[in-house]
Amino acid sequence: FFMDVLGYLSLLSIFWTKSYSYFNQYNVMKNKNLLSSTFRSKVEILMAKAVESYYCEKCGLEHIKWVGRCTSCLEWNSIKSIRYSKIGNNKKNSAITEFFPPQGVTLNGKESSWVSTSDLIQISDVDIDSQVSRIELFSRELNRVLGGGLVRGSVVLLAGEPGIGKSTLILQLAASVAHQTRSKVVYVSGEETAQQIASRARRLSIECNDMYLLCGNQLDHIIQEQIAKLGAYPSLVVIDSIQTMQLEECTNAVGTVTQIRECTSRLVQYAKSTGTVVLLVGHVTKSGDVAGPRVLEHMVDTVLYVEGIERADFRLVRSMKNRFGSVSEVGVFTMTAQGLLDVSNPSELFMSSQVLSDGLEGSAVTIIMEGTRPILAEIQCLVSSKKQYGDGITSAPRRTADGFPFQRLLVICAVIEKRLRLPLWNRDIFLNVVGGLKVFEPLSDLAVAITLISSLTNIPVKASTAFIGELGLGGEIRGGRNTEARIAEAAKQGFTRIVLAKSSTQSHSNRESTERRYGTVTIQQFPCSTLREALSEGLETGGRGIDSVIASLNQPRRKRKSANDGNESEDVSYSNGDNLFDHPIVEGDFDDNDRSEY
Fold it and tell me: Which of 268, 298, 304, 277 is nearest to 132 (CA)?
């Protein structure tokens, strides 16, 4: 036993002596700069201490231990264990958060360096013209979304579904920056080959004189070695995509939360220190969010989403975050063989000319605001009769909404059924926004209600009429912001009648129509307080009041007793001969107070 112990101790002493000798030899070579950067980083990783953390795959929140449900996004089974290296005696969690740009590289003739955070500087002494100068792009729509162009030193995140046109837009943007700044642009791709990107550029007839391609995913090698060969900082660096990049110091797999966060941190520091614009392309999940941690959107300066329908020719570029301009701006493009082109009049894409010239049944136009731009949107609705199987058994009604919030549609249906006594409980309702446009603004509620009632009653909407208003639970109509800009856009498209909320106009008398001139078009405004008033001004009732139309449709027949005894149940006829509404309304169901105007 003692011999075995002595043998183990002798082996341990030999191992310790060898390790100490190799460690001293490594330090000597490191001090004399005899080690390559690649070998040094690999040795440091081997000597690093492994640290285990727990992150949520959905929102990126860090947890001290594993839990079944994330406390931030409330998702189940989204907490994953991640191991990374804590190198040396660095006080930070990871050495990869420290980055210094390559030495000897100049920007506009001056050597760039980090500004020490310990030095105080007055805001008035900051040279804004040189630090926040913008680069104008090829597209007026894209400049609108970005707030006037790309800001030097900014980090832009561009996300969208696969096949939506992100790569096409990036190539056009990169060529525009190279032409505008007369400087070099670097396109880094971790998904495609150089031949694929070059063939796309030739197909789009893009001049690539100052554009450089680099296919790879090693971010350290790309920044410190390849880009440094240019001799000057490029004006734009495109990363396609951020989910494919990785750092040597980070031992996690490509696309994990830690890799994405650390790679983005490295690129943000590079952009701020060199004045280079960094454009990141991001993947999206099934829910439409950017893949990776939620902190990714917080780290960048601008977040852009490319939206659209594959079968449609137009694309929308929407700004969800912008530190240098207005948020919620939208740019409208059309997809052609030459790439994405601007659409000068977006309202023509989302509205048919027949609505303007002739009133249609179940179709109305509203004016929505996309940032600072008003856009006309046509909303269509189809209300079909109920389905009966066998002995009067009615199937459950269907409710679908394409381009409009489904829950909001249910609220509007409930308001119509309660306040106007129109039966929708047994009707199939299909709502669609023309052109694939997504409408989330509450001021489009009035147009939805008008189209729904028009389809239900087979009464067309008046021609050249647009609707602006939010529908309350009591049947009242509320106004909103930018009313003058909306009306001016409607006049530009040829509309002559606007039905809007009374609170949005200067008129205080009840249902007083006013006329105003916008350019060469005279707009007649009809301020309304309730949904009943809006129906009177918006539907072609043939000279009859909307109250008489609703009353005639809802007028029940008198009860008809059966041949049974009085204690037995009675048969009740439900409606008039039209059989338009098969709603079991009998005398005594509601009193005169329920029939009053809301």
Answer: 277
Alpha-carbon distance of 165 to 341, in angstroms, equals 12
Q: Is 80 exceeded by the pLDDT of residue 149?
A: yes
Given a cut of 80, whether residue 104 has pLDDT beyond it is: no
Task: Give 472-488 pLDDT, tens digit per residue.
Answer: 999 999 998 889 999 99
b (16+ CB within 10 A) / e for 113-132: eeeeeeeeeeeeeeeeeeee
Q: At what angle do helices 166-181 and 194-203 cross, to 10 degrees?
A: 80
Q: Which two tokens stand for residue 487?
A: 């009306």
Phi then psi dihedrals of residue 395, to 5 deg: -75, 165
Q: What is the pLDDT of residues 382-405, one digit of tens each?
A: 998 766 555 555 678 889 999 999
Structural contact between residues 219 and 246, judged by C-beta atoms closer than 8 angstroms: yes
Do the beta carbons of residue 446 and residue 467 sit within 8 Å?
yes
Question: What is the per-residue pLDDT across 221-267, written as a single tens digit (0 to 9) for each?
Answer: 999 889 988 888 999 999 998 999 999 888 778 888 888 888 999 99
R_g of the chain computed on alpha carbons: 33
Residues 6+ apart with CB under 8 A from 242: 157, 260, 263, 264, 267, 280, 281, 282, 292, 296
**Beta strands 302-308 and 155-160, pairing class:** parallel
Q: Mean pLDDT across the stretch 562-570?
A: 47
Phi, psi of 217 (to 5 degrees): -135, 5
Both structure tokens of 37: 């950067």
Nearest of 408, 403, 398 to residue 375 by alpha carbon = 403
| % helix, strand, coil for the chain, step of 5 | 35, 25, 40
Give the integer Cα–Cα distance in Å for 329 and 311.
24
CB contact set of 134 (below 8 Å; sequence gap of 6+): 148, 149, 150, 151, 152, 324
Helix axis angle, 531-538 to 445-457, nearest 10°: 60
Q: Give the pLDDT confidence of 505-548 residue by residue, as tens digits.
A: 764 444 566 788 887 788 999 999 999 999 989 998 876 777 77
